[in-house]
Amino acid sequence: MRRTVLALVLFAALPACSLFRKAKLTDSTPAHTPAQSSTPFGEWVLFTDPNQTAFVGARRVELTLNPADFRMVAIYPAGERVVITGQASITPSGLLTLMPQSTTGMASGGRAPILAGQTIQVLASAADNTMVFASPEGMNPTPSSVWHRVDKAREAGQLPVPARTAGTDSL
């Protein structure tokens, strides 16, 4: 009886071993998938706490970055908006230069976080739906700010979907 049970167990185990051999017990998905897009151009929303940036007190900061120009909108709790527009350029190494030409003032009389004529240079690195700005000096690994693509941030529930009317613009 023992021999019969042992034979049955071995007989049942052989196909299982064959399955494992065929499957090779490996994961078909790679541990790292390369970014599908590395362009810094597009619409972004600041993910870093604005109080840790020049936009202290802002509820939200959005950036539209094009190859030749940019537009930033900082929205404050009282509904105030600061709009900064100007020229933009980026080198192949990722050095982003923003040259503000127009900055709207705050209705409350507060100072705008970035003034016209105040050139800003940061290292910009983008991968898919995230962009990081860092100091261009030295090898500082700490990002100065992290940005997410607006459409993906909305999909993830990080941003409300704006009510669009003829007189409003989300940026």
Give me some keywords for this one.
globular; 171 residues; disordered C terminus; 8 strands; alpha+beta; 2 helices; 8-stranded antiparallel β-barrel
Question: What is the C-alpha radius of gyration, as a whole number of Å?
Answer: 26 Å
Q: Give the count of helical stretches.
A: 2
SSE string, helix = H, strand = E? HEEEEEEEEH
* Strand-pairing-aware structural class: alpha+beta
Give the overall average pLDDT.
78
Report, as a whole number of angstroms, the end-to-end distance.
Answer: 81 Å
Shape: globular
Number of strands: 8
Query: Strand fraction band?
Result: 25-35%
Helix content: 10-25%
Please tell me about this protein's structure.
This protein is α+β, with helices and mostly antiparallel strands and 171 residues long. 16% of the residues lie in helices and 33% in strands. An eight-stranded antiparallel β-barrel has the order 1-2-3-4-5-6-7-8. A hairpin with a 3-residue loop joins strand 2 (60-65) and strand 3. The longest helix is centred in the first third of the chain and has 22 residues, at 2-23.
Topology record:
Layout: H1 2-23, E1 42-46, E2 60-65, E3 69-75, E4 81-90, E5 95-103, E6 120-127, E7 130-134, E8 143-149, H2 150-155
Antiparallel strand pairs: 1-2, 1-8, 2-3, 3-4, 4-5, 5-6, 6-7, 7-8
